[in-house]
Amino acid sequence: MADYILVDTVDKARDTIHALQSRQQLSVDCEGVSLGRTGELCLLQIAIPQRVYLFDIFVLREKVFDIGLREILERESCVKLFYDCREDCSALKHQYNVEVKGIEDIQLLALLNMKLSGKRWQFVSGLQKCMSYHLGDCGFSGAEKARVHTALDNDKGLWRQRPISQDLLRYAAKDVMYLPNLKDKILSRISVAPRSSVLDTIRYASKRYADFMINNEGPEDSPYIGTARLPERIIPNMVRRGGVISYTPFEDTSVKCRSCFWYTGTTRSDGQCNRCYDLYVEKLRAAR
Known about the structure:
The chain is of the alpha/beta class and about 290 residues long. The protein has a single domain (about 5-230), classed as Nucleotidyltransferase, domain 5. Helix content is about 45%, strand content about 15%. The protein has a six-stranded mixed beta sheet, sandwiched between helices. It has a two-stranded antiparallel sheet with strand order 7-8. Helix 5 packs across helix 10. The longest helix has 20 residues, at about 195-215. The chain is globular, with a radius of gyration of 19 Å. The termini are far apart.
C-alpha cells in the first residue's frame, strides 16, 4: 500500500501544495458527514504515485484552499481522477467555493466501456465492485471497508472526531490510491475509439455529472438517493465523422425535471424526465 500522510497544519499544507503544483494528474476523493451541498466536508484525499495526502479540512477549513489548494483543484490542465464526483464537487463548491476542473470520473469511464461494448450501461456500480471486476485482488479488502461502513453507520459524526483513527485514514487512502490503475485498465479494454476521444468524452460527461449535483436545488429526497441509476443526458453518444470518432454534445435546454432538477428537456406531462418516472414506478412496485 502507498504511504499516506495526514496534513493537519498550515505548514504541512503549504509544503504539500508546493509538492503537488507540477503534477499533471491527481486522484481525489472526499469524506465527511452527510457529504454534499448541506453536509460537512471533513477530509480531502489527494493521491500521487506511491503517496496519498489526507488534508484535514475539519481542522484547516478555508485556510488550506486560500494558500493554494483551490488553485490546483481549479486548474483545467491538471487531470483530477474521481470515482463518482457528484457529492464531492457539490461539497467543495457550496462549502468552500471551489469549482473543480479537469475531472475524469472513473465511474463514468466504466459505464462508457460497457456502452461501447453493447452492454447494459445505465446502472452505476460502487468502487469496490468496479475494482474487483477490472483489477481483481489488489489488497482492496471488501471486509475492511464493510467494517468501516458499520462504524460510520453507528456514528454518523465519526469523520468529525479528532484524532482520526488509523482505520479511517487507511480507508480514506485506499478509496483514492488505485484510481490511476483502474483508469488505465479500463482504457486498455476500449478498442473501438482512440484514447484521446474517449478521454475527451469522459471529461465532458464528468463536468455534467458534477454539475448535476452542484446545480441541484431540489429536495433532499432526490430520486437518485439510494439508487444505482445514471441520470439522463450525462454520457453523450460517440460517432464517427470523416474517419474521426468524437462525442456529440447534448443540445442546450432550459427545461428542468421537477424531480431531479436536471436540465433534461423534459416532455412528459407530469414534469418528470423519463428516468425519474421509471424510478417512481419502481418504488411504487417495491412498496406493494
